[in-house]
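step=encode ok
step=design start
structure_in=
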């Protein structure tokens, strides 16, 4: 059977080839509704396959597959099942984690879906007590000289790597979980039991301040393809500038006062200790 491709699929393949080198480690955050504005008949499967084709098995494709299966004080938590728990961070990530050859890691709260060379280096058992910090997939990505992060139709509020920078800088509240007001404990729950967590990622909305800072300094450039905005970000660059920014301006990483209970909790913890 000869497979035929839509015009949008072929356009998308050419688009990917215009900026994406083959064989590199790549993490992708995306909003498919925004991608479809530029490629109207593209399917999620076609989107993913074009990335895999361009990267080749000698490259690495990584996407978050977070489920946020935290223990709750009232006992209402979900239990993470590595094979069956749906990703809560977008339709693209859910399709990707179910594709042949994709390996999902075992963090009950912040698992990742992996394809390609990365699967030789990160085992499915990966589940550090700092889910987005030391020992995580993001730490491995930092160690790869050619690693990039692709933001397709999303801004830095979706950039999980900023949580890694929070733990490495570290920001003053790196070890303070902000979700107590929701009854959430610093414990992940999976089919293998409970795992106490040393660090719990908080709110990400104000990471856009870091984005604006990098744009003002002309360190990064927002690219456009028709109605689609995107970033192709070298991880080494994010690490270099992120450590400086997060150490100098930690309060800019929090939402304005009285607009976000999670950020208010971290601001209160900061005021207590500094």
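sequence_out=
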């Amino acid at each position: 059977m000869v497979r035929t491709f839509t015009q949008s699929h072929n356009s998308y393949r050419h688009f990917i080839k215009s900026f994406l080198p083959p064989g590199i480690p790549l993490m992708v955050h995306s909003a498919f509704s925004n991608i479809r504005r530029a490629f109207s008949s593209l399917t999620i499967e076609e989107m993913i396959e074009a990335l895999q084709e361009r990267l080749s098995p000698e490259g690495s494709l990584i996407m978050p597959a977070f489920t946020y299966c935290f223990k709750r004080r009232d006992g209402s938590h979900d239990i993470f099942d590595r094979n069956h728990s749906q990703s809560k961070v977008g339709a693209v990530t859910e399709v990707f984690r179910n594709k042949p050859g994709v390996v999902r890691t075992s963090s009950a709260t912040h698992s990742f879906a992996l394809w390609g060379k990365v699967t030789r280096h990160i085992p499915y058992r990966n589940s550090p007590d700092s889910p987005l910090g030391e020992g995580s997939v993001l730490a491995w990505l930092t160690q790869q000289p050619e690693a990039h992060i692709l933001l397709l139709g999303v801004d830095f509020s979706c950039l999980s790597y900023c949580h890694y920078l929070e733990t490495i800088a570290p920001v003053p509240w790196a070890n303070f979980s902000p979700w107590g007001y929701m009854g959430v404990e610093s414990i992940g729950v999976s089919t293998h039991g409970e795992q106490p967590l040393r660090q719990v990622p908080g709110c990400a909305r104000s990471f856009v301040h870091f984005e604006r800072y990098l744009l003002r300094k002309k360190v990064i450039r927002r690219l456009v393809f028709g109605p689609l905005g995107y970033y192709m970000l070298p991880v080494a660059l994010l690490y270099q500038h992120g450590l400086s920014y997060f150490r100098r301006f930690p309060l800019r990483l929090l939402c304005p006062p009285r607009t976000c209970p999670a950020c208010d909790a971290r601001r209160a913890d900061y005021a207590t200790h500094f």
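step=design ok
step=annotate ok -> Strands lie at 25-30, 60-64, 70-72, 103-104, 112-116, 148-152, 184-190, 193-196, 223-225, 228-234.
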